Amino acid sequence: MSDQHIVERGSSSDEEDRDYVTFDFILSSRIGFGIYQIIALCIVSLIDFIDGAEQYYMMILVQVLQNEWKLSDNQIELLGSFYFVGLFVGAIISGIFCDWFGRKNSMAIGCFLQLCTVIWTSLAPDYSHMLAIRAFYGIVIGMTLPIGILMMTEIVPKHIRGRCLILTQSAYMLGKFYLLLLCVFFMDDLSKGNWRAIAICQIFPCTIMSIGCLFFLDDSARFLVSHNRIDEAVVILNRTGQKNKQSQYEPLTQYEIESLKKWQQAKFAKQPTTFNTFKGLFQGSNFGITWRLIVANCVNSFISSGTLFLLPFYLHSSGQGFFELFLATLGEVPASIIVYLFIDVQSVGRLKILNGTLLLSTVSLFLIYLIKEPFLLGGLISIKFFSRFTGLCSTPLISESYDTIHRSLGLGLSTAVGRAMGAISPFILYEVYLFNKWVVFLIFASLAFITFLVFLSYPVDKTSKPLDQDHTQEIITKSRQQSPQIKINHANEDTTSLLSEQKQNQDDQTVVSRSALKDQNQD
């Protein structure tokens, strides 16, 4: 059978003629979703699991060390801020590391450093050491979090990409429950207990994550293709296909390998320098994405870091403890389930869900400010619900916004600027809390409404759509002239209808089969 197939797709107003199939088509139709992506999902989810546990650990640690080491208010603010300063630095590093060393190598380095820092935390002798540990741990977490999101975004077929990212992010919630469980065994209340034993228990998930990353993960084939490392990408794609489909998998044909080369030339022929990639974030359609993501991440980080920092103070001042903290965290469970069910439904989309939850979150925060103490626990539960809802919806939306060339640096930049705002949040909000603890919720409500307005005009929503669109018609035309015997007529893969996507795939399979039968008859 010939490796060259005649594949005809439906026409559209943006119809182009190409003589190759795209990476997304090969990933969805040939490689599929299977055991490899499930293993990768479990490993990458541990990054969010540890981050969730660490956020709650930091929240409780501040209260404990204030009593145990007799820390002043300024020292408490510094302890909370240094972690977010580290997150800012780590987020910047992640974008550069990912493009220089690849997704897997960057993640492996981050996992190993994370393990070392957890061990260091359990041995911290005094406040100055703890400040350094918090800053360095923030750097490590800030570096690994975007890499995990990038990895899952690039290795999963488009029809299930959103749900996989939701499952990854849901591990963040499980990490919080894990930390609360440890607190039951090692803490007396929110202000005293054996915090070193809790740090030691964090070693186990870090070790599992490090081993899994080293021995069970491959680099992102999409990233390798974008950097013209086609042979390495083909090896990884074939290995992934064999794991997913076992004996039913057939290695990529020469035609498909040539298609990857032509797709790379069409989409990534001009490899920009790091400076030009950074500059490209503020040019053309990327500009509208970048400034909105920076504003949204700043607001989200300010609210989330402020909430985590102040939550134990609110509960402690109201005579509440771990049970109430558990109930507030429980509000995240239904949010994860609902988002998982709807995130990949193209008729709904990421933006509609996100905007709806931001509006409801604004209302909940404003109600706490108005009703105050009687609504505190119910309000905290609703805040946890809507904040988790917002975070889960925004993750796939943000990670899909840029193409592969700009994705790591764009995600790293917007995350880094947001983390910087999170670093100053404790300084500002703790002073507001001391002045009037209810005004904090009025500030949060105003910021949540600003985020709603920002996303109301967000220009990109790639729900169940290809990550990278081809724009270089000149290269396509030149390639078609060099290979006139192969012709592929297909619609724009960025179709606005899931039904149209399914019909295109069915047409692909039908005509490929017809071509195979024709080749056999000729033989």
Automatic annotation (TrEMBL):
Taxonomic superkingdom:
Eukaryota
The GO molecular function terms of this record are: transmembrane transporter activity
* Cellular location(s): Membrane
A Pfam family of the record is Sugar_tr
Q: Where is the composition biased (Polar residues)?
A: 494-513
Which keywords does the record carry? Membrane, Transmembrane, Transmembrane helix, Transport
Record-linked InterPro entries: MFS_dom, MFS_sugar_transport-like, MFS_trans_sf
Transmembrane portions of the chain: 31-50, 78-100, 107-125, 131-152, 164-187, 193-217, 293-315, 321-341, 353-371, 438-458
Topology in the lipid bilayer: Multi-pass membrane protein
> Where does this protein chiefly localize?
membrane
Q: Where is this region: Disordered?
A: 478-523
User: Where is it found, in Gene Ontology cellular component terms?
Assistant: membrane
Domain Major facilitator superfamily (MFS) profile intervals: 40-463
Name of the protein this chain belongs to: MFS transporter
